[in-house]
Amino acid sequence: MFLVESRALLQHADRLENLGRRLGRGEEGGLCIGYVADAIHTGILPGALRALHDAQPDVHIALYNLSPGAQFEGLRQRSLDIALVHQPPPADDPDLVAAPLFRDPLLLAVPAKHPLVGKAEIAPGDLDGLPWIAIENAQDPAWRDAFVASCAAAGFTPDIRLDAAEPLTALGLVASGLGLALVPKSMASATTEDIEVRELPWHDGCVQLWAAWHHIDLRPVVTSFRTTVLGTRSAE
Questions:
Q1: Do 157 and 111 belong to one domain?
Q2: Are residues 16 and 65 in the same domain?
Q3: What is the pTM of this model?
Q4: Where are any strands of DSSP class E within the chain?
Q5: Contact partners, residue 152, CB within 8 Å, separation at least 6
Q6: CATH number for the domain including 87?
Q7: What are the CA-CA distances from residue 150 to residues 154, 160, 222 (Å)?
């Protein structure tokens, strides 16, 4: 019995040694990723995860939908390996660095039967005082003021009738004829025949996506995944 148990112990030690080598090469292990919702529907995060799975299928992935502040703290505490956020950390941050990934322009979503659909060009004055659906930003307490200010800067004042938790909900409300909305271009594929999407050349609003990470890499898998994520910049 002692001989059998000893052999089993030696075999387990061999497996641990092999596991250590694979972890050192980044072939196995966990990867903790913080993200905001836009990282999903723009395709940035799903595409990077698919590439990682194809190259290193044994890597376990944990995803955390967190505010930018919580993600930055996670990077400092090493509970997160990479963060996908709307804004980078401060330029003078001693621990964190970042790079831009994606710029998603905002388009106007209009009910298909709305009078605006028949206009060849939509001017700011055409939107003034019309009912609007504003998309909330739970991570920014001043999101409503920022939205109204951006509209005012473009030349019109929205009459906000409804607040939507995310762009897909806003599109559903637009399809029901309840108002207009500004939605990211990456969501245009989610529209139905009840919605008309129009570009506004005079409106420069957009949703930005950044990758942030700790300036000291501890594991090869983190470096590899970051390289994959940053590679999406040219692809997108």
A1: yes
A2: yes
A3: 0.76
A4: 29-35, 59-65, 82-85, 96-111, 131-135, 159-164, 181-184, 195-198, 206-214
A5: none
A6: 3.40.190.10
A7: 6, 13, 37
User: Does one domain contain both 69 and 147?
Assistant: no
Spatial distance between the Cα atoms of 191 and 40, rounded to a whole number of angstroms: 17
**pLDDT level of residue 236 (50, 70, 90 thresholds):** very low
**Locate tokens 């595409």: which residue?**
47
User: Looking at the structure, do residues 122 and 148 belong to the same domain, yes or no?
Assistant: yes
Residue 109 dihedral angles phi and psi, to the nearest 5°: -100, 125
Together in a domain, 167 and 203: yes
Q: Which amino acid is at 218?
A: L
Which domain, by its residues, includes 125?
A: 103-207
For the chain, how many structural domains are there in total? 2
Instruction: Please indicate, yes or no, whether residues 133 and 201 belong to a single structural domain of this protein.
Output: yes
What's the per-residue H, E or C state across 172-191?
HHHHCCCCEEEEEHHHHHHC
Return the pLDDT at 148: 92
For 169-201, write each residue's pLDDT tens digit. Answer: 999 999 999 999 999 998 888 888 999 999 999
83 and 126 fall within a common domain: no
Same domain, 8 and 65: yes
CA distances from 48 to 45, 75, 99, 171, 211 (A): 5, 19, 15, 27, 12
Could you tell me the pLDDT band of residue 235, with boundaries at 50, 70 and 90?
very low
C-beta of residue 51 within 8 angstroms of C-beta of residue 20: no
